Amino acid sequence: MQKFKVANLFGIPIYIDLTIGLLMAYILLFLGGTIEYRAVMAVMLPVSILLHELAHSLVGKLFGGHIVEITLYLLGGRAVISRMPYKPWQELLVALAGPVLSILLGFLFWGAFYLLASLSSPFSITMHFLLDVFASLCLLNFGLAIFNLMPAFPMDGGRILRSALECCMLSRVKATTVAVVVGRVFAVFWFTLWVSDFIFGVHIDVTAWNCPEWMMFIFAILFSSGGIVLPLIAYMIWISGMQELNLVRQEADYYGD
User: Phi/psi at 3 (nearest 5 deg)?
Assistant: First the structure.
């Protein structure tokens, strides 16, 4: 797909892939709420993803990495970092930067929600709108963090797992192999959820589970089986994991492991 440059932040070119338009259109057409609410969420989802990727990039730059670009597309964002730091603890910090920022943004919007709720009563239409937006942005950023912490390439959790294994004295090839296998287990699991729902009509109803709301939110991310996005993510994990492993093997052959 074709991509377009839209900005340059901290010396990093920012691109959007045409597929990001599909994501925004889906939100505008199928998300509940008013058109104003849907428009805000259609804009803020890519913005939240961009901030997540910027966090990776800026921490990578601290360790001498060169950020080629950041691209936003249908299934998320991707920061292309050349001269990536190879020390395991550095990769760990780079991988953690995105989820940590998303969590901080989640708490920021959570605080804004409760601050606004405590200031006014009864609420005007505008106040209700802002409360809905802040609550949704809180959950959105927490969701980005949780999803990206799944231990599967190309998500942050896969790199965190690999760097942790390297810190435990495994070679980079062996650590990557373990991380790829774990990621493929998640890919098979998510694809199986989608098949069971789409073909057989069997799905996991997390709303029936007796657990706190924050835990319900995590379970909904892990076990949701609706739409075509889930098999696309499973496919991306399956392919990206093998691409990463092949790259690491090539580097090991060239430099020596």
Answer: -125, 155
Task: Identify which of 163, 172, 145, 7 has the alpha carbon closest to the alpha carbon of residue 94.
Answer: 163
Cα separations in angstroms, 107 against 34, 84, 104, 114: 25, 30, 5, 11
- What is the CB-side half-sphere exposure of residue 97 using CA atoms within 13 A? 21
Please report, in angstroms and rounded to a whole number, the separation of the first and last CA atoms in the chain.
Answer: 36
Residue in this structure with the two tokens 């373990």, named with its chain if needed: 178
pLDDT in tens, 73-129: 877 888 887 766 568 888 899 999 999 999 999 999 999 999 988 876 666 778 888
pTM, two decimals, is 0.86
Angle between helix 125-148 and helix 35-62 axes, rounded to 10 deg? 40
User: What sign does the dihedral 167-168-169-170 (CA atoms) show?
Assistant: negative
